Amino acid sequence: MAGRRKRVKAVDKWKLKRWYTVTAPQVFDGKEIGEVVSADPNNLINRVIEVPLFDVAGAAGGVHAQTAMFTSLRFRIVDVSGQEAKTKFIGHQISPAFIKTFARRGRTVLHHVLDEKTKDGETVRLKLIAVTGSRVSQNTKTNLRKMLEEETRKFVRERNFDDVVREVVFGKLSSHLFSKLSTITKMRRVEVRKTERHEVFK
User: Mean pLDDT across the stretch 66-86?
Assistant: First the structure.
């Protein structure tokens, strides 16, 4: 007579999981930006977290509250210590729908993308948009694009990565570019609509 099979007690995998507090890097004062759950903290490494700028900083740093609500920040988890998952900043983006609200007919819209190294050797890609007050000539567009490129590259080269992040996210670079481009023609808006940090995975 065959023996009875022993019943194996099912393991509740959820009970094995633990909650971890996700924190922003020091450029955002190490603030708590969310929580994640995992049975193995090693599985959290490289996970990307996306949060609205408004949740991290409100309207601090001079950024307009409306812009803050439509701006998202992206972080990558790089280390887990105890119950804390630490991150690094990997980029930001202003909602395309929000961008469209000021890029309307009757204006010239310039899009520009450039890669540049910061003072401390980080490579960052910036995607910019400049909107004039009215339509402008081809010559004016060329001058605007040239100044946009020169001023942005100079700005990035002269600063460390964290300083670039802070001044881009909180609108200081946009304000600087707006002032410079306004010496050429009347401007409606200048924004760094997206940034991407160059990452090397080993």
Answer: 91
